[in-house]
Amino acid sequence: MPQHDVHVDRQEDTLAKVRTPGGADTTNGGGNRSRAPIDSTRDNLTYLRIVEQVTSSGISQKELGSAVGASPRSVQNWVSGEAAPRSRSRKRLLDVKYIVDELQEVYTREGVDIWLHSRNRNLGGQRPIELLTAGNVDEVVDEAQRLSGEM
Protein backbone atom coordinates (compact mmCIF):
# COMPACT_ATOMS: atom_id res chain seq x y z
CA MET A 1 0.00 0.00 0.00
CA PRO A 2 1.54 3.40 -0.97
CA GLN A 3 2.38 5.78 1.83
CA HIS A 4 1.46 9.46 1.70
CA ASP A 5 3.07 12.33 3.52
CA VAL A 6 0.14 14.31 4.89
CA HIS A 7 0.25 17.83 6.27
CA VAL A 8 -2.88 19.24 7.87
CA ASP A 9 -2.62 22.95 8.54
CA ARG A 10 -3.36 24.74 11.81
CA GLN A 11 -6.96 25.35 10.79
CA GLU A 12 -7.91 21.90 12.06
CA ASP A 13 -8.95 19.56 9.26
CA THR A 14 -10.46 22.18 6.94
CA LEU A 15 -7.64 21.86 4.42
CA ALA A 16 -5.25 19.02 3.78
CA LYS A 17 -2.36 18.81 1.37
CA VAL A 18 -1.18 15.39 0.29
CA ARG A 19 1.98 14.49 -1.62
CA THR A 20 1.34 11.37 -3.66
CA PRO A 21 4.12 8.83 -4.32
CA GLY A 22 4.47 10.28 -7.84
CA GLY A 23 5.20 13.68 -6.33
CA ALA A 24 2.01 15.49 -7.31
CA ASP A 25 0.39 17.80 -4.77
CA THR A 26 -3.34 17.52 -4.34
CA THR A 27 -5.80 19.21 -2.05
CA ASN A 28 -8.13 16.94 -0.08
CA GLY A 29 -6.83 13.82 -1.82
CA GLY A 30 -6.88 11.98 -5.11
CA GLY A 31 -5.27 11.72 -8.51
CA ASN A 32 -1.96 12.66 -10.10
CA ARG A 33 -3.00 16.16 -11.19
CA SER A 34 -1.26 19.19 -9.80
CA ARG A 35 -4.52 20.27 -8.19
CA ALA A 36 -7.54 18.20 -7.35
CA PRO A 37 -10.85 19.36 -8.81
CA ILE A 38 -12.86 21.40 -6.37
CA ASP A 39 -15.92 19.60 -5.16
CA SER A 40 -18.44 22.39 -4.54
CA THR A 41 -20.34 20.40 -1.91
CA ARG A 42 -17.17 19.73 0.06
CA ASP A 43 -16.10 23.36 -0.42
CA ASN A 44 -19.46 24.58 0.91
CA LEU A 45 -19.20 22.26 3.91
CA THR A 46 -15.74 23.63 4.67
CA TYR A 47 -17.08 27.18 4.68
CA LEU A 48 -20.01 25.99 6.78
CA ARG A 49 -17.51 24.78 9.41
CA ILE A 50 -15.63 28.07 9.26
CA VAL A 51 -18.83 30.09 9.72
CA GLU A 52 -19.88 27.83 12.61
CA GLN A 53 -16.50 28.27 14.28
CA VAL A 54 -16.59 32.05 13.92
CA THR A 55 -20.20 32.41 15.07
CA SER A 56 -19.61 30.11 18.04
CA SER A 57 -17.04 32.65 19.24
CA GLY A 58 -19.75 35.26 19.76
CA ILE A 59 -20.07 36.94 16.38
CA SER A 60 -23.67 36.80 15.16
CA GLN A 61 -24.44 35.90 11.55
CA LYS A 62 -25.57 39.48 10.99
CA GLU A 63 -22.29 40.87 12.41
CA LEU A 64 -20.30 38.37 10.35
CA GLY A 65 -22.11 39.45 7.21
CA SER A 66 -21.33 43.10 7.95
CA ALA A 67 -17.70 42.28 8.75
CA VAL A 68 -17.15 40.39 5.50
CA GLY A 69 -19.28 42.59 3.24
CA ALA A 70 -22.08 40.09 2.66
CA SER A 71 -25.80 40.16 3.28
CA PRO A 72 -27.32 38.19 6.16
CA ARG A 73 -29.00 36.00 3.51
CA SER A 74 -25.61 35.15 1.99
CA VAL A 75 -24.32 34.07 5.39
CA GLN A 76 -27.44 31.94 5.85
CA ASN A 77 -26.73 30.30 2.48
CA TRP A 78 -23.16 29.51 3.59
CA VAL A 79 -24.50 27.98 6.80
CA SER A 80 -27.03 25.85 4.92
CA GLY A 81 -24.35 24.71 2.47
CA GLU A 82 -26.26 26.17 -0.49
CA ALA A 83 -23.42 28.52 -1.41
CA ALA A 84 -19.85 29.43 -0.57
CA PRO A 85 -18.45 32.93 -0.14
CA ARG A 86 -16.76 34.48 -3.14
CA SER A 87 -13.81 36.80 -3.72
CA ARG A 88 -13.78 39.65 -1.19
CA SER A 89 -16.23 37.97 1.20
CA ARG A 90 -14.15 34.78 1.18
CA LYS A 91 -10.95 36.68 1.94
CA ARG A 92 -12.58 38.66 4.74
CA LEU A 93 -14.23 35.53 6.21
CA LEU A 94 -10.83 33.83 6.36
CA ASP A 95 -9.38 36.98 7.97
CA VAL A 96 -12.07 36.89 10.65
CA LYS A 97 -11.41 33.19 11.21
CA TYR A 98 -7.71 33.95 11.60
CA ILE A 99 -8.49 36.61 14.20
CA VAL A 100 -10.75 34.21 16.11
CA ASP A 101 -8.03 31.51 15.98
CA GLU A 102 -5.45 33.96 17.35
CA LEU A 103 -7.75 35.06 20.15
CA GLN A 104 -8.59 31.47 21.09
CA GLU A 105 -4.89 30.98 21.82
CA VAL A 106 -5.35 33.19 24.91
CA TYR A 107 -9.10 33.42 25.60
CA THR A 108 -12.05 31.10 26.07
CA ARG A 109 -14.89 31.40 23.54
CA GLU A 110 -16.67 33.71 25.98
CA GLY A 111 -13.47 35.74 26.32
CA VAL A 112 -13.25 36.07 22.53
CA ASP A 113 -16.85 37.31 22.45
CA ILE A 114 -16.13 39.89 25.16
CA TRP A 115 -12.91 41.04 23.46
CA LEU A 116 -14.60 41.48 20.08
CA HIS A 117 -17.47 43.54 21.53
CA SER A 118 -15.61 45.64 24.13
CA ARG A 119 -13.83 48.93 23.66
CA ASN A 120 -10.11 48.33 23.31
CA ARG A 121 -7.49 50.79 24.53
CA ASN A 122 -4.96 49.54 21.98
CA LEU A 123 -7.44 50.16 19.18
CA GLY A 124 -8.11 53.77 20.11
CA GLY A 125 -11.07 52.90 22.30
CA GLN A 126 -12.93 51.27 19.42
CA ARG A 127 -14.63 47.89 19.44
CA PRO A 128 -12.86 45.28 17.27
CA ILE A 129 -16.14 44.09 15.74
CA GLU A 130 -16.88 47.65 14.59
CA LEU A 131 -13.40 47.98 13.08
CA LEU A 132 -13.97 44.73 11.17
CA THR A 133 -17.30 46.02 9.87
CA ALA A 134 -15.60 49.24 8.77
CA GLY A 135 -12.99 47.23 6.85
CA ASN A 136 -10.07 47.89 9.22
CA VAL A 137 -9.11 44.22 9.39
CA ASP A 138 -5.35 44.77 9.64
CA GLU A 139 -5.64 46.78 12.86
CA VAL A 140 -7.63 43.98 14.48
CA VAL A 141 -5.26 41.30 13.14
CA ASP A 142 -2.28 43.20 14.57
CA GLU A 143 -3.88 43.46 18.01
CA ALA A 144 -4.97 39.79 18.00
CA GLN A 145 -1.42 38.78 17.06
CA ARG A 146 0.02 40.98 19.79
CA LEU A 147 -2.22 39.27 22.32
CA SER A 148 -1.34 35.77 21.15
CA GLY A 149 2.35 36.62 21.22
CA GLU A 150 3.00 36.35 17.47
CA MET A 151 4.19 39.93 17.00
What does this protein look like?
The chain has 151 residues and is mostly helical. The protein folds into 2 domains: 1-37, no CATH class; 40-148, no CATH class. It is 52% helix and 7% strand. The chain contains 7 helices and 3 strands. It has helices at 40-55, 61-68, 72-80, 87-104, 109-117, 128-133, 137-148, and strands at 5-8, 16-19, 25-27. Strands 1-2-3 form a 3-stranded antiparallel β-sheet, with no helix packed on it. Helix 1 packs across helix 3. It is globular and about 40 Å long. The N and C termini lie far apart (44 Å). Mean pLDDT is 79; it is low at 1-38.
Enumerate the spans where pLDDT stays under 50 for 5 or more consecutive residues. 1-38
User: Secondary-structure element sequence?
Assistant: EEEHHHHHHH
Q: How would you state the average pLDDT, rounded?
A: 79
Helix content: 40-55%
User: Could you say how many structural domains there are in total?
Assistant: 2
Rg (CA only): 17 Å
Strand order of the largest sheet: 1-2-3
Percent of residues in β-strands: 5-15%
Total beta strands: 3
Q: How is the biggest beta sheet arranged?
A: 3 strands, antiparallel
Q: Structural class, judged by helices and strands?
A: mainly alpha
Number of helices: 7
Roughly how many Å apart are the termini? Answer: 44 Å
Shape type: globular
Characteristics:
single chain; 151 residues; 3-stranded antiparallel sheet
